[in-house]
Amino acid sequence: MSLKLIDNRQITEASINLALEEYLANNLSPQDNYLLFYRNAPSIILGKNQNLLEEVNYHLAKEKNIELRRRISGGGAVFHDLGNLNFSFIRPFDKKMVANWQEIAKPIIAALNSLGVPAELNYRNDIVVHHTKISGTAQYMSRKSMISHGTLLFDSKLATLDGVLSPRATNGIASKSLKSFRSKVLNIKDLCPKGMTISTFEQALKSHIFGGDSKIKIKRLSEQAWKQIEALAQEKYESWDWVFGRSPNFKINKVLTIGNDHLVFNAEILRGGLIKHFELNFPKQKQHVREFAAQCIGQKYSEEI
Fold first, then answer.
1. Cα–Cα distance between 58 and 68 in angstroms, integer?
2. Long-range contacts for 281-286 (Cβ within 8 Å, ≥24 apart)?
């Protein structure tokens, strides 16, 4: 079974690259394996089963114009920018490859080792150097195919990563969502040959994995395929229902200070982002806040709160 490299047209929109992965998994020939490399403009990519409010400093992300997106695979939230290179292996479903990251990550680790980067896989299936994380991984499976993908922090803005993946206040939020595991990270660039850029780094990985530049087999998608991918990106990956509403059920119990007074609110949010229960207690405006709370039932919970 041959390996083919997907041409993503150097697209850096997270929603399109996420839609591209899903399209590849559902539409390409099951007779081949595929490898996709892509970079995204600044964005936070949530795991399928995560609660956005527990993972993201929403207001900081908005201030920095960082897109919020959700993928179809599990795992934790990750920060992407143009200094981060993502890899994705798309192959026919194979029970032996389920969570088999020792085998999946082998070509990536071997390519990194060839550049002098002493990478290895840890017990959490992260690629690390001396116990410091340079790559997180996740996997999606259907009956016919599987996606095994991960990040490669080459020259990412680590301070921004730390800031936007540190929620201002998770106290008061209760849910059964999958929580991200925070790890110390570093950039691969600091370990590579001097002068290497992310473009030459990407080409070096491709060349090593395929056994030379001349052996790289490129798969280009049709215009019709790209139209379907763009439609999927807009209808799913850019939608409020997928990005925000997909969060599991959760409850909030918070106290906000307004001047010298305190506003207490309790809310229960269902999957789909709809408010099931909303209770406000503000001594100065008892009647008004009660009326407002009653009007919120059945409405979409605003991430601005």
1. 9
2. 282/258
Report pLDDT digits (tens) over 215-242: 999 999 999 999 999 999 999 999 999 9
Which is nearest to 121 in space by CA: 140, 141, 136?
Answer: 136
Give the predicted TM-score (pTM) of the model: 0.86
| Amino acid identity, position 102 | Q
Place of tokens 């996709």: 36
Sheet of strand 132-135: strand arrangement: 119-121, 127-129, 132-135
Q: Can you give the three-state secondary structure of the chain, one letter per residue?
A: CCEEEECCCCCCCHHHHHHHHHHHHHHCCCCCEEEEEECCCCEEEECCCCCHHHHCCHHHHHHCCCEEEECCCCCCCEEECCCEEEEEEEEECCHHHCCCHHHHCHHHHHHHHHCCCCEEECCCCCEEECCEEEECEEEEECCCEEEEEEEEECCCCHHHHHHHCCCCCCCCEEECCCCCCCCCECCHHHHCCCCCCHHHHHHHHHHHHHCCHHHCCEECCCHHHHHHHHHHHHHHHCCHHHHCCCCCCEEEEEEEEECCEEEEEEEEECCCCEEEEEEEECHHHHHHHHHHHHHHCCCECCCCC
In the sheet where 173-175 sits, what is the strand order?
173-175, 250-258, 261-269, 275-281
- Taking the CA atoms of residue 286, residue 288, residue 293 and residue 295 in that order, the dihedral angle to the nearest 10 degrees is 150
Give me the residues paired with residue 285 across strands.
Answer: none
Question: What pLDDT digit, counting tens, does each position of 175-198 carry?
Answer: 655 556 668 999 999 999 999 999
